[in-house]
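STRUCTURE:
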C-alpha cells in the first residue's frame, strides 16, 4: 500500500511538472501599439487620436481610442491569431512602438464594457534582458510584485474617455494559454 501511494504521488508530481513546463514553453509574438509611459491625446482630425510620450510632442501611433490622460503603466500590444486581433499587456521596460516581441503569457485580464467582454493577455518578454519582472506565472507575479494587477485593472477601468471598462478578474497562465489555443 505504501509503495502504491508513493507511485501515485510520483506520477502526480511528474504530470504537474510537465504541465507547468509546457505552460512555460508557450509563447506568442505581439507588436507594441502603445509603449509604456505614453498617453493617447485627441488629434485635430475627427475620429482619430494619437499617442505621445509625455516628454515628446511627436505622435507615436494613430488609433480610434480616446485617452485624454493616464500614461500607460505597461506596454500595450496586439497580436493576430486565426485572423482575430488580441490585446496584450507587456510588463517590463518601455518597448519600441511598431516592433514585435516574443512573449510569455502569465495571465488573462478580463473586462466588461456593456455586454462585451475584453480580454487582454498579461505577458512578459521571453528575452531575459527585457525581463524587469521575472515572474513566469500569475501566482509569482502577485507574490513578488503585489499590486501590479490592481494597478493595471484600475488603469484600464479609467483610461478611456469614450467608454468605461469594469474589471472582471485575472486568470492564471494556464487559462490564458487555453484561451490562446482556443483562438487558433
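SEQUENCE:
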Amino acid at each position: 500500500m505504501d509503495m502504491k501511494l508513493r507511485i501515485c504521488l510520483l506520477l502526480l508530481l511528474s504530470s504537474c511538472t510537465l504541465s507547468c513546463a509546457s505552460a512555460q514553453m508557450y509563447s506568442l509574438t505581439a507588436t507594441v501599439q502603445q509603449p509604456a509611459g505614453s498617453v493617447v491625446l485627441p488629434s485635430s482630425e475627427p475620429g482619430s487620436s494619437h499617442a505621445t510620450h509625455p516628454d515628446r510632442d511627436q505622435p507615436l501611433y494613430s488609433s480610434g481610442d480616446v485617452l485624454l490622460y493616464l500614461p500607460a503603466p505597461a506596454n500595450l500590444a496586439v497580436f493576430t491569431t486565426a485572423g482575430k486581433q488580441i490585446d496584450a499587456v507587456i510588463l517590463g521596460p518601455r518597448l519600441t512602438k511598431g516592433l514585435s516581441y516574443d512573449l510569455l503569457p502569465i495571465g488573462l485580464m478580463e473586462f466588461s464594457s456593456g455586454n462585451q467582454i475584453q480580454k487582454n493577455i498579461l505577458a512578459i518578454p521571453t528575452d531575459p534582458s527585457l525581463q524587469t519582472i521575472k515572474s513566469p506565472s500569475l501566482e509569482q507575479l502577485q507574490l513578488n510584485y503585489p499590486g501590479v494587477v490592481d494597478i493595471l485593472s484600475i488603469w484600464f477601468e479609467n483610461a478611456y474617455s469614450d467608454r468605461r471598462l469594469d474589471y472582471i478578474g485575472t486568470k492564471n497562465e494556464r487559462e490564458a494559454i487555453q484561451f490562446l489555443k482556443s483562438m487558433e
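REMARK: Residues 2-25 form the longest helix (24 residues).
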